[in-house]
C-alpha cells in the first residue's frame, strides 16, 4: 500500500524516463502528481507514450494502493466486471466533457471494510443528485459544459515581428536575449545610424539604456525608452505571451465563467476562491481579446477607426479613382475650346502646347474633381489631420488622364495607420496582460472545479434521468426493493415493468422469512435473468456509493460479489473444472453476494442438480452470504439438498391477445414455478399455419 506519495517515482510503474515525460508534459512534478492523485485521466493520457487505457490503469492502481483496495477485490468474476463497465458506459452518456468521461473510471465498488469510503461517495453523489434536480431540464449548463476543456498553459507564443528591443549596453543585451529571445528581436547597436536603420523596420521600438536618450532622432522614429531591462515586468515588453495562453483557451475559459455564473444564479454555491467581482473582472478582461490574442473590434473606438480605414482604404480609392475618371471624361466630352489668332500663332511657333492650353481650360473642373475625391476618401475613412495630409498628396498636381493614385503614398498611409493601431493595441495588451497574469492559477483551479463538477453532475443527471434513489443501508444480511427496474433494459426500451423482491433480512420480505439463499425458478423469457442482472447492477452501484434503480431499496454491504452469467451450452471437462474452481473460493467466511444464472449447463442435468445443491449448502453455512440461483432444476436440486432453501417462482399464466406471455414479473415467494414451455409451443402454433402449425400442434398435444 502507498501511504505517502511525494515524488513521481514513489509511484510503482513510474521510473526515471516516465517521470521526466510527466514533468515535461505538466510543467512540474507537483502538477503531474496532482493530475495522478486527482484522477485526471484525460491529461495523463496525453503524455507521450501513455494512452487512455494505461492512464486509467495507472490512476486505478494508485487509488487502489492509496486506499488499500482494488476493483477486483469486490468484483470477483468477469461477468461482474462486465456489468460494472456497462454501468460506467451508461453513466458516461451524461458526461459533457472528455475529462469527466475518463474520470468516471476512478469510481468503483468498495467492499464493506471500506464502508466509510462508500458513505463519503454517497454524500457527494447525493449532493449532485440535488444539483441535477435544481437545474432540471435547463440545457444551458449542458451546452456550457460541453465547451469546457482543460487549459493548456504550455503552448508557445508566436514571435512578435513588429517589435524590437534595442540597446547599446552589452549587459542589457544579454539580459534581454535571455528574457525575450524567441519572442521578439533583440539588437545591440554601436551608433545612432544603426539605431535609426533598425528602428525603421519595426512598428514599436523599445530602447534600453539612458545613453540612447542622447541620440538625435528623426521625426519618424519614436521609440519607448526604458532604463533597466532586468526589472521591467515581462508584460510591458511582450504582453502577448500571457494573452496568448488565455486566448488559446478562450472558449473553455469563457464557458467556465458562465458555468460559475449560472450555478450561482440558481443559488448553488460554487468556486468560492473567486468572488463575483473577480469573476466579472476576469470576464470583462477576456472579452477584450479574441482567440488569436488580438484586441477585439469594439474595444477601442480609435483602433476600430484605424482598422476600418486600413481595410477599406484600397477598395475605396479604387472606386473613387474610377468615379473621378468618369467625371473627367465627361468634362472632356463637353469641353469646347476657341482659339484666338494669337493663340494659334503661339501653338504654331511652339511657344505653347495645345495640351497646356487644354489644361488651363480644364484646370478648375479637374481640381474640383480631385478635391471632391480626396475629401470623400478622408470623410468616408474618418481620417485625422496628419492622415488627410497624406491623402491630399495621393494625386498629381499636373493634370493627367486617366487619374492614378500614388501607390507608394497608399503604402505609406497604410504603414502609418498600422503603426498607429499597433501602438494603441500594444497599450491595451499591456493592461490586459497585467490583469490576466494574476489569474493564471485561479483560472486553472476554476476550470478544474468546473470539470469536476461535470463528473458529479453527470452522475446526478444519470440518477435524475432514470429516477434512481439512494438505498437504505442495513446491518443484517439482506436486500429488498420496491419497483426495481433493470437499467440496461430501461436505457434500451425507455420503459420496463417494475418488480418487487427480497432476499435475506430486510423490511420488505415475507413476514418472518429471512432466507439468504434462494432458488429462482420460472418461465422462459419471464425475467429471471433480467432480475439477476438488476440485482448485480444495484449491488455494484450501492457499493460505489451511487443510487440504485428502484423506488425504494434496503441492502447490506458485503465484502465481494460473484456473478455467474448463463453459459453457452454444456461445458467441456476443462471448462467444467474451471467453473468448479471459481465456486470453490466462495466457501470462505467473508460476506458476499452470489448470483448465478442456470448453472445446470455445466454438465448433464442429474449431476448439475447435485453440484448446485452442494454449492447452496456451502453458501447457507455463511450467515453473511446472500445468494440467488436461477435454475430450471429447482425440484431436482431440492431433492439433493440437506438444508432448507427458499424457492421462488416467476410463472406465466397464459397468452394475451397479441400472443405475448402473461407474466407476473415479481417473483412469487415459496413457489416452484414451471418453465411452461407449452405456452411457447402454443404461441408458435397460433402464429403459423399449414405444415408448421401441424408440427407445433403435435408438440402441444404432448403436454395435454
What does this structure look like?
This protein is α/β, with parallel strands linked by helices and 704 residues long. The chain has a 5-stranded parallel beta sheet. Strands 2-1-3-4 form a 4-stranded parallel beta sheet, with helices on both faces. A 4-stranded mixed beta sheet has the order 5-9-6-7, with helices on one face. Helix 25 (605-620) links the parallel strand 11 and strand 12 (625-630). The protein starts with 15 loop residues before the first helix and ends with a helix. The model has no long low-confidence stretch (mean pLDDT 87).
Question: Which secondary structure elements does this structure contain, and how are they paired or packed?
Answer:
Layout: H1 16-26, H2 29-37, H3 41-44, H4 52-67, H5 71-74, H6 78-92, H7 98-103, H8 115-135, H9 139-145, E1 163-167, H10 170-180, E2 185-188, H11 192-199, E3 204-208, E4 224-226, H12 234-237, H13 239-248, H14 250-265, H15 276-286, H16 301-334, H17 341-348, H18 354-380, H19 385-392, H20 407-437, H21 440-465, E5 472-473, E6 478-484, H22 487-493, E7 499-504, E8 517-522, H23 528-544, E9 552-555, E10 560-564, H24 573-584, E11 592-597, H25 605-620, E12 625-630, H26 634-640, E13 646-650, E14 652-655, E15 661-663, H27 677-687, H28 690-701
Parallel strand pairs: 1-2, 1-3, 3-4, 5-9, 8-12, 8-13, 10-11, 11-12
Antiparallel strand pairs: 6-7, 6-9, 14-15
Helix pairs in contact: 1-2, 6-23, 8-21, 9-14, 13-20, 14-15, 14-21, 16-18, 16-20, 18-19, 25-26, 27-28
